[in-house]
Amino acid sequence: KMKSRATRVVFRTNDKRMHGLILTKKIHRTQKHLDEWNDDKQCGRFEITIKLNNELKARFLSFGSGITIEKPKWYANEIEEEIKKMLHSYRNMEQNILI
Hints:
- About 35% of the residues lie in helices and about 30% in strands.
- The chain is α+β, with helices and mostly antiparallel strands and about 100 residues long.
- The chain has a 4-stranded antiparallel beta sheet.
- The longest helix is centred in the C-terminal third of the chain and has 19 residues, at about 75-90.
- It starts with 5 loop residues before the first strand and ends in an 8-residue tail after the last helix.
């Protein structure tokens, strides 16, 4: 586990279909709908309050570009660093192929 206390996580949806999916298939029982989908801004917002762990990080990453973590900023930075590592891995894939 990354933190022992429950943390408020605010995230933005970047895709209307993803927004609808998260409305009907909650990420966590504490999920609250902060902002409806806005066609002009092309986003909506949710929050959850949860103990942060590796499973949650994997779940957020599974949504790809469909969501963006907004708060807490340190957690958004942690997710961003993981994405950078993934990108680096794919960029170096040709050099690392073992045949």
